[in-house]
Amino acid sequence: MARNSPAPRSAKSRAGIRPLPGRARSENGNAHSDLMNGEIGLDALAGHAGYAVRRFQIWVFQDFIRTLGAVDIRPTQYSVMTVIGANPGLSQMAVAKRLGIERARLVHLLDSLEQRDLVSRVKSAADRRSHALHLTARGRTALAQFKRLAAEHERHVAEKLGKENRKKLLQILSDFT
Amino acid sequence: MARNSPAPRSAKSRAGIRPLPGRARSENGNAHSDLMNGEIGLDALAGHAGYAVRRFQIWVFQDFIRTLGAVDIRPTQYSVMTVIGANPGLSQMAVAKRLGIERARLVHLLDSLEQRDLVSRVKSAADRRSHALHLTARGRTALAQFKRLAAEHERHVAEKLGKENRKKLLQILSDFT
DNA sequence: AACAATTGTTGTCGTCAACAACAATCTTCC
DNA sequence: GGAAGATTGTTGTTGACGACAACAATTGTT
């Protein structure tokens, strides 16, 4: 989603907020039509849950990335660490299934987290094909901080949606978690 | 790495090593524990709107892509055509802003749609930098069909969420459309 | 006329989902 | 007990996508 490689200059001042109201006044067509007032209709799009959700998700992720920018943790990395932290010893397959990400993708995610000494792959004695995933000591203390920042992010969401709306949203989508 | 190392072959007499029977904790092994029943806790993740939304969005998009698979139209393409259909003559900049996509990205999207004779770029006489976007005749009839299929997709969403929940969801996220 | 801003375009980079293939290692079944 | 099939982690590829940067053409602004 966003540039967040640690090396290049941080996308700090970026203020990656997207232009919601989009005062897209002057459409180039000539004098005709009802668009002149700057209102660009969405037509059928307005009734599509998928569209609204896409826009919302972009906003949420950008806020998450920005709020956890200081610790350089992205949403997926956070989800992986959270699940491992709550269920130490899980295999990569189990984590991938639970989070709905491809095991192929998880490989790179874990490579990164392991390099940062946040997660460790322990060869399982029971099934030598698989790895038992654990947080390192450093990973545990780090996760605690991540959770505090993530809670702050979640407060931003609550501000944006309203407390009750956020709650209702979580309830409506609870089947997908 | 582990892939090509030919050495680690035999040696490992699987005789003595066994998975510590006393352990009732979450272990990678398949033999036991709380994972067997599929119960993998999400911990803090369960309270994050972003996580729920991400999972939901994946589901919705997959259903959309599948439902409109016969006509080979993806969500973003549909959104572009819908907006152009409802506001003929818009510039690329205006469409990009309204839909929250990069104008650089829109170039490719329009290239594709133009190649399929669904959209046409008309050089604007008013501002010769910009293009006025229109649906072709073919594009208009095609969009009508796309909308029917999209409506079917939306019914799938309603089935999944419940009619009322879908409505509430659209209302909660209305600021983002 | 000179200079700043906008529009479409091209290109690069990184994220991400979906596959396919593979070696190592279980599991199953005869 | 061993062959056949399934699973796990891994590597690689493809394509959609968001964020940026640079550029030519064209306004607009002064």
Automatic annotation (TrEMBL), chains A, B:
Residue ranges of the region described as Disordered: 1-32
SUPFAM superfamilies (UniProt xref): Winged helix' DNA-binding domain
Family annotation (InterPro entries): HTH_MarR-typ (IPR000835), MarR/SlyA-like (IPR039422), WH-like_DNA-bd_sf (IPR036388), WH_DNA-bd_sf (IPR036390)
Protein origin, superkingdom: Bacteria
One Pfam family here: MarR_2
GO biological process, one term: response to stress
GO molecular function, one term: DNA-binding transcription factor activity
PROSITE patterns, sorted: HTH_MARR_2 (PS50995)
Domain (HTH marR-type) ranges: 42-177
SMART domains per UniProt: HTH_MARR
Protein name: MarR family transcriptional regulator
